[in-house]
Automatic annotation (TrEMBL):
Belongs to the nitroreductase family. HadB/RutE subfamily. PANTHER family: MALONIC SEMIALDEHYDE REDUCTASE RUTE-RELATED. InterPro entries: Nitroreductase, Nitroreductase-like, Nitroreductase_HadB/RutE, RutE-like. This is Putative NADH dehydrogenase/NAD(P)H nitroreductase MPL3365_190176. Keywords: Flavoprotein, FMN, NAD, NADP, Oxidoreductase. It comes from the Bacteria. It holds the Pfam family Nitroreductase.
Length: 215
């Protein structure tokens, strides 16, 4: 079918609007998928702390298994924190990360289950995980990754651009930012207001029949 036909089908969907924090957002505003891009170059426009709080307020409302919410996020803004991060970055990611207004460490808490009496009080959900470290880790990683995806979509809804990355040494990030805690890094997302001059041409995507089956 091709990318252009897929985009045309999305644009034909019926518009339904809703209000989010005084901003009208169309439920068929597929631009957060179809025109938003992964950015590598950034303007010097800052990202406010209030915007980051709104970002988390939005992403935290999306679903996780048993509301376990294991995602943890460190928003790196200061030059000192950026320099702390630099040794963990691959050579290809260093310059753009230093230039980004914010770099989010998307992490997960392997002891997320300690919050379940608060987050899922219907039953003793904590006991589901305390008896099996393997299940706890899988649940934390899976749902924390899911929340990282929500972060990217929420950022775009708030007018930010995002540049997710996996080119870094997790162990170094964990030693620098999470020593003595149960938090573990997953991936990084640069956030800010992207400079279109740094964009590559849009790459192809797999068609439905290449990536999907209906059983």
């Amino acid at each position: 079918m091709g990318l252009s036909a897929s985009l045309a089908r999305l644009e034909a969907a019926r518009p339904i609007d809703f209000i989010f924090k005084d901003r009208r957002v169309a439920m068929n505003d597929f631009s957060i998928f179809t025109t938003a891009r992964t950015h590598n170059k950034w303007t010097d426009k800052p990202v406010s702390d209030d915007t980051l709080r709104r970002l988390y307020d939005l992403l935290k409302m999306a679903p996780t298994s048993a509301n376990c919410s294991p995602g943890r996020f460190v928003f790196i803004k200061s030059p000192q924190a950026k320099e702390k991060l630099r040794p963990a970055l691959s050579s290809g990611n260093a310059a753009k990360t230093m230039a980004a207004p914010v770099t989010a460490i998307v992490a997960y808490d392997e002891a997320f289950y300690d919050r379940l009496p608060q987050l899922f009080p219907h039953t003793d959900a904590r006991s589901w995980f305390t008896s099996s470290p393997e299940v706890a880790h899988e649940t934390a990683f899976r749902n924390g990754t899911l929340q990282g995806g929500y972060l990217i979509i929420a950022a775009r809804m708030l007018g930010l651009d995002a540049g997710p990355m996996s080119g870094f040494k997790n162990r170094r990030v964990d030693e620098a930012f999470f020593a003595g805690t149960s938090w573990k890094s997953n991936f990084l997302v640069n956030l800010g207001y992207g400079d279109p001059a740094g964009l590559f041409a849009r790459l192809p995507r797999l068609d439905f029949d290449e990536a999907c089956k209906i059983a």
